[in-house]
């Protein structure tokens, strides 16, 4: 199983949109088995796959809190044959606090111990814009990190801190953790965007070639329809871009596995 963390310290950069759409293509087109892990107490990825409930006590929070958790209880089927999900809700807030005070068991490896041996081709983790214990858990379990970037005047906010954190997890827990690069989302062909991209390139931050175009109407409609954009509106710009992005990602993954 290849585990991918979608992460950024900024909100609204399309982490969830990327996770939700990245899960769909390998499952629907390439017949791969995909597990989505919602690691955000807002539960937006769970909502996108219609598996969100404030009353749900079988969420990712249990993985943080309970030793030897039976994963069959917390993994939910979605409306899509090859996509399952571990949902999140506000329970995750308390689970993070509970984990910090529970020093009797290693705090950073709880996701890994419970989930790493599951039988999926891909596990995609959607994260909250923060650095907390469940995010460290996500990184400890991950093979790949993708950082969505929305170019505005605060584009680079937190990027350095995040890269430091990734390096720290690599050093302490997971030498296989690989920072694939930044993915430009909500791209518009204007001066601000193009200057921002130039600035990122100068900082030698790895960037995916494929950008995701801003396609306001369809993205918001797909959220209301509770469907991945790539299913809801195959022909819209962002959907096509997400499909191409997944191909670029898979080709990179394939090339690395052959080295
Ligand atoms: N390519 C896009 N074009 C237009 N709107 C987008 C696009 N990607 C995301 N959005 C919108 O931007 C907002 C933030 O996206 P979201 O995925 O929830 O970000 P995050 O998870 O990083 O907070 C949402 O309202 C979403 O519908
Ligand atoms: Mg989100």
Automatic annotation (TrEMBL):
Domain (AAA) ranges: 3-177
Q: Which Pfam families match?
A: AAA_31
* Protein name, entry field: Chromosome partitioning protein ParA
């Amino acid at each position: 199983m290849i585990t991918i963390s979608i992460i950024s310290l900024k909100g609204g950069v399309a982490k969830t949109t990327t996770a939700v759409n990245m899960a769909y293509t390998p499952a629907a087109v390439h017949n791969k088995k995909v597990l989505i892990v919602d690691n955000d107490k807002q539960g937006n990825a769970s909502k996108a796959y219609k598996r969100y409930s404030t009353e749900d006590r079988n969420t990712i929070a249990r993985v943080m809190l309970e030793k030897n958790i039976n994963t069959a209880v917390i993994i939910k089927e979605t409306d899509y044959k090859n996509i399952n999900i571990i949902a999140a809700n506000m329970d995750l807030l308390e689970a993070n606090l509970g984990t910090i005070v529970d020093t009797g068991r290693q705090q950073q490896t709880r996701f890994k111990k419970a989930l790493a041996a599951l039988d999926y081709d891909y596990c995609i983790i959607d994260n909250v814009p923060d650095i907390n214990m469940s995010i460290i858990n996500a990184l400890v379990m991950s093979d790949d990190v993708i950082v969505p970037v929305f170019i505005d005047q605060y584009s680079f906010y937190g990027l350095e801190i995040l890269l430091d954190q990734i390096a720290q997890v690599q050093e302490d827990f997971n030498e296989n953790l690989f920072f694939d690069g930044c993915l430009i989302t909500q791209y518009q062909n204007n001066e601000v965007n193009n200057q921002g991209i130039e600035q990122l390139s100068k900082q030698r931050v790895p960037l995916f070639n494929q950008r995701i175009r801003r396609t306001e109407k369809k993205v918001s409609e797909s959220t209301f329809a509770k469907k991945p954009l790539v299913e809801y509106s195959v022909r819209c710009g962002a959907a096509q871009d997400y499909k191409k992005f997944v191909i670029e990602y898979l080709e990179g993954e394939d090339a690395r596995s052959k080295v």
